[in-house]
Amino acid sequence: GQALMSLFVLSCKDGWVSIMYDGLDAVGVDQQPIRNNNPWMLLFFISFLLIVSFFVLNMFVGVVVENFHKCRQQQEEEEARLREEKRQKRLEKRRRRALEKPYYADYSPLRRSIHTLCTSNYLDLFITIIIFTNLLTMSMEHYNQPQYLEEILKYCNYVFTLVFVIEAILKLIAFGLRRFFKERWNQLDLAIVLLSIMGITLEEIDLSASLPINPTIIRIMRVLRITRVLKLLKMATGMRALLDTVMQALPQVGNLGLLFMLLFFIYAALGVELFGKLECSDENPCEGLSRHATFDNFGMAFLTLFRVSTGDNWNGIMKDTLRECRPHDRHCLSYLPLISPVYFVTFVLTAQFVLVNVVVAVLMKHLEESNKEAQLEEMEERKEMEERREMEERREREEASRR
Predict the structure, then answer these.
(1) Which residues form a coiled coil (predicted)?
(2) Which residues pair with 293 in a beta bridge?
(3) What angle do CA 41, 42, 45 make, to 5 degrees?
């Protein structure tokens, strides 16, 4: 039993090096260990780690994930059908727009030039450079910085804010209120601009001492400047696709998250009941349990289980629950050496190996599907552009024949 437990801990890669060196130093039962007594045992531990940890456990996880996808196959087919319907509707809407008169056809020459600027890649490239420069200046701030540096950074912030304000105004002119607010990224840009203006206003009011302002509010507004980096997401197509994938997978991941919470709730309540009275003292030293990892109450038990699920020294925590009862230890339960391995092994298998990997598999599945949809949309756009080009050429030939 103890050998199986040691091999399971070894397969989890939690402190496996210590177990391996103890095996190399082992001599026999009730005999003093000798350093590197049996170096050939190294082959046993490494081969076991390669076979079980890298192959068998991953195959086990793969089988679980495959069965999970099989159970969801019908639901996935329904989701795929709905996504295809939405994609067809978007394509149909795009085709109708291509045949219609563009909304900027009646713009004045000045407004049309602003629209051309706002829809070009040059403005996005310029804003990207400004954002990176802004991040560079923000990273230069430090405690007890010189007065001249503080003044330079303050005026740099004014310049960056002015650039973002001008960008927002140009887009409002180019797209109009309705089309501007229809795009969520434009809403985010406007919110960032308003936060920047509010932060500068509060700093100026505080410097002039015209109104008493809580310094915490000013610090919060300074911290919120980091939200400007979110503007980069609008230019990064790959990151946007990844975010869209996460948003699409949220309902399914949310269900798995509820299952996660239920598992933690059950094991935390059980852990408080089983291990809540274990004490760590000079007489009863602990290897894993401490004031930061304990089962004294439900909250700490929950955090301790989260630590166990990440694989951080869960072996040491389990060892503390396996200790033998002493004659005058009122809080020790004699049946813990039987229950504790079952408790920790089942939790580690379920939380660390199954549920986490199922969540990753769900996200990977959605990312794969979103990539396929993006490729299909790109093919449809190319086809649509070719059809539009053919229609324009046909129209030009008809006009030329009439002449």
Answers:
(1) 65-101
(2) 290
(3) 90
> Can you read off the two tokens belonging to residue 126?
């310029």
Determine which of 15-24, 267-276, 302-311 has the lowest per-residue pLDDT on average: 15-24
Q: Are 313 and 18 in contact (CB under 8 A)?
A: no
What are the phi and psi torsion angles at 290 (to 5°)?
-160, -170
**What would the two tokens of residue 157 be?**
């912030």
Beta-bridge partners for 290: 293
For residue 381, the SS3 value is: helix
Contacts of 91 (CB under 8 A, 6+ apart): 377, 380, 384
Sign of the dihedral through C-alpha 316, 322, 325, 329? positive
**Residue 305 tokens, joined:** 């289980």
d(CA 390, CA 401): 16
Q: Tens of pLDDT along 124-142? A: 889 889 989 988 988 888 8
How long a stretch of residues is the chain?
403
- How many angstroms separate the first and last alpha carbons of the chain? 96
Lowest mean pLDDT among 101-110, 182-191, 295-304, 326-335: 326-335
Q: What is the pTM of this model?
A: 0.67
Contacts for 69 with CB less than 8 Å, ≥ 6 apart: 76, 361, 365
d(CA 211, CA 355): 54
Nearest alpha-carbon partner for 306 in 342, 268, 332: 268
Mean pLDDT of the chain: 80
| Tens of pLDDT, residues 46-80 | 888 888 877 887 787 777 777 777 776 666 677 67
Angle at 116 between CA 181 and CA 169, to 5 degrees: 40
- CA distances 183 to 189, 245, 322, 330, 394, Å, are 10, 18, 59, 66, 35
- CA–CA separation, 38 and 58 (whole Å): 30
**Number of CB atoms found within 10 A of residue 319's CB:** 17
Under a CB-based contact definition with an 8 Å cutoff, are residues 340 and 274 in contact?
A: yes
| Dihedral sign for Cα atoms in the order 217, 218, 224, 226 | negative
Instruction: Please report the sign of the dihedral spanned by the C-alpha atoms of residue 228, residue 232, residue 235, residue 240.
Output: negative
* 311-348 confidence digits (pLDDT tens): 888 888 888 888 766 656 665 666 677 888 889 989 98
Q: Which residues contact 329 (CB under 8 A, 6 or more apart)?
A: 284
